[in-house]
Amino acid sequence: xxxxxxxxxxxxxxxxxxxxxxxxxxxxxxxxxxxxxxxxxxxxxxxxxxxxxxxxxxxxxxxxxxxxxxxxxxxxxxxxxxxxxxxxxxxxxxxxxxxxxxxxxxxxxxxxxxxxxxxxxxxxxxxxxxxxxxxxxxxxxxxxxxxxxxxxxxxxxxxxxxxxxxxxxxxxxxxxxxxxxxxxxxxxxxxxxxxxxxxxxxxxxxxxxxxxxxxxxxxxxxxxxxxxxxxxxxxxxxxxxxxxxxxxxxxxxxxxxxxxxxxxxxxxxxxxxxxxxxxxxxxxxxxxxxxxxxxxxxxxxxxxxxxxxxxxxxxxxxxxxxxxxxxxxxxxxxxxxxxxxxxxxxxxxxxxxxxxxxxxxxxxxxxxxxxxxxxxxxxxxxxxxxxxxxxxxxxxxxxxxxxxxxxxxxxxxxxxxxxxxxxxxxxxxxxxxxxxxxxxxxxxxxxxxxxxxxxxxxxxxxxxxxxxxxxxxxxxxxxxx
Length: 481
Description:
By secondary structure, this protein is mainly alpha-helical. It is built from 15 helices and 12 strands. It is globular. The two termini are 18 Å apart.
């Protein structure tokens, strides 16, 4: 059994066809050596093509079936949302954790991620030969490609890794570092982290010395590319997941010191892609007409179809009068509460908005959580929690918490702040809690997921195991053989 994939390559004008395992892609038209790319401008075009693939319907984009693997799906699979009769049953296997190694939706997400990695590796292939052509441009292109490669492997690890600890000897995801036909064995989680942090460290060094600024200075609604601030934000997230708490604090602090939180008055403008409110957006992936939408699987604005509504539990956690997030995230439509934070740009309601990959508010929450894991740092954690709440809630009075109460408050604030931004399933997973859907609804058949359940780690697609001669049934995640 072989995978056949078609994806964009280089400028987006040429196409490549791939056989073998998904992670090993072979171009249909092969040029040898330097003939592939003749100068750094060719690599620039390839980098543009790499970013474009994030809009895949199986990554940040959405479609009529299961999609939005790293945008809306982690919330659909959690206790934040409840499936409605308007979903047309497109998501049942995933949201009810009834998936197996031959699940097409999981295979499609795996494929979409490795397509981006393949494109990043195309962008990196042979680029060192042109380092002297324009060192600043070389640094800028290579640094972004390395960061993309690390980021996508990290995203894959979140779904397919069982234990995400830095030193875990459980199996991670194949770390593809070259565009070639070589199969790769499944490494440990520790080895996967090693690849992620090596690429991010190299990217940060390269992006500190570029020919031109990567994003427009001061315009945080146009932060479509990965720059040094973005790398530190990705590092902060990865450090938290891997349990490196001092490093997470340091990386988050670098970002917080450079990127301000939006004021309460301007917060709602973030979700309309208005620059006045987008000062806190660190990385925002553009979606324009004809490029799909990132959140239609939750609420299909053009057709007024609410496939998933906010759970009564999560709605009850907001101060519905004074918390600006409530009116920014929800509205009543035809006597039902819908998720409205992705309605459209400006005054439009077509569901086409930029996907906010990372915001600075997450950095406050990362730093706060990491500080609770370090003895003696509770006051620092409490300070960040109160700062974020004060920026969102009118008349907020700072609270005083400690111990488990503080940990619980920070976890709750993550849930409220990052609602339907692709975090909730992973947050419950990495903190080894039980997922309980108190507002289960009529369309969920599984109302809870206990810690340790096999469903927290997705199965490696069976086609990958069959096609990759360095994988066997022994490399499958527990419970899926």
